[in-house]
Amino acid sequence: xxxxxxxxxxxxxxxxxxxxxxxxxxxxxxxxxxxxxxxxxxxxxxxxxxxxxxxxxxxxxxxxxxxxxxxxxxxxxxxxxxxxxxxxxxxxxxxxxxxxxxxxxxxxxxxxxxxxxxxxxxxxxxxxxxxxxxxxxxxxxxxxxxxxxxxxxxxxxxxxxxxxxxxxxxxxxxxxxxxxxxxxxxxxxxxxxxxxxxxxxxxxxxxxxxxxxxxxxxxxxxxxxxxxxxxxxxxxxxx
Length: 239
Description:
By secondary structure, the chain is α/β, with parallel strands linked by helices. The chain has one domain (28-236): Vaccinia Virus protein VP39 (Rossmann fold, 3-Layer(aba) Sandwich). Helices cover 34% and strands 24% of the residues. It is built from 9 helices and 10 strands. The strands form 2 sheets. It has a 7-stranded mixed β-sheet with strand order 6-5-4-7-8-10-9, with helices on both faces.
């Protein structure tokens, strides 16, 4: 079911053969984790400001996004408190079998996997929730989140995790200045985020992906292109 693929930056990803998609960009799995998620969601800045970062991670995958969050907090003294959702825990088992990771990735990924496995780590608390995130998210009682990594498989193969209802449930759990980041630039996804009460902005170019999507209630984001923003505003209030 899971086929290992070495990406362009030397880090690994896994391809789900039943869905026909890889967990990360082939231009660089570690690059994507750092530049698409940890960076735009201001993980390091939040750690320096608050001393703790509460992270919601949708799509644990190999654990690379969590590892990137840990790397971003390095030297800040801040604590990471994360809740991460994965439909198939086998992907984590397969990730642990992969060898020859780049040195800058291996230590952080090991730390993330240890925390995911329940091993106590100073400054790290990661709760892994296995199953359908639509059913599990409403039941969690953690405090509102400071950052959201939205990284499930694409809307084409996993539309249920991009539904308007599910994105509204995520938005409801975000602090006012929390930032959500995702690789998807789908208009439908952006519209659902806007209808959930979030301001939608343009995510950075990462690898071959021209742009992703950022969303927040109050944090200032890079704006969408003018015509696209006007279309979003027109559609936002319609059913």
